[in-house]
Amino acid sequence: MLGKTTTIPPTCVKTTSFKEKREEMALVNFSQYSLKQLLDLEQDLTKAIRDRQVEQKKEALDKVRDIAAGLGITPEELILGEGRPKKGRVPAKYQNPINKKQTWSGRGKQPGWLKELLAGGKKIEELEIR
């Protein structure tokens, strides 16, 4: 009976290629194991896979950091990259002559005050900020 940590037969570990490992694993007769043993094996394999993924991720991050450091790239630059330049607020192009605080940049949906003035006969050129 298998213990808490399942041991895979040595013949499954000695191979050199993935194809050979897969072929040798196919030779293992899992029908001889109880359900509990198979579940323990599944749990052990899942943990081994997670551990390997964490290990490989750490190795990859270390390599990337080393390459970046060799090029004089800071971790912040690595994360943010050059990034898009931040767009500032677009200056107002039009202003409500009745309420000077109401402005519009000319982008996006026209505000209500502008629609009302245009509907009342004003020309948009008359509302331009000079």
Number of strands: 2
The helix/strand order is HHHEEH
The total count of helices amounts to 4
Largest sheet: 2 strands, antiparallel
How far is the first residue's CA from the last residue's CA? Answer: 89 Å
The coarse overall form would be elongated
Overall pLDDT metric: 85
Estimated helix fraction: 40-55%
What fraction of residues sit in β-strands?
under 5%
Unreliable parts: none
Structural classification: mainly alpha
The value of Rg in angstroms is: 34 Å
Strand order of the largest sheet: 1-2
Summarize the structure.
The chain has 130 residues and is mainly alpha-helical.
Describe the protein:
This protein is mainly alpha-helical and 130 residues long. It contains four helices and two strands. The protein has a two-stranded antiparallel ribbon with strand order 1-2. The longest helix is centred in the middle third of the chain and has 36 residues, at 35-70. The radius of gyration is 34 Å and the shape is elongated. The model has no long low-confidence stretch (mean pLDDT 85).
Give short descriptive properties of this protein.
130 residues; 4 helices; elongated; 2 strands; mainly alpha
Topology:
Elements: H1 18-27, H2 35-70, H3 75-80, E1 94-95, E2 103-104, H4 112-119
Antiparallel strand pairs: 1-2
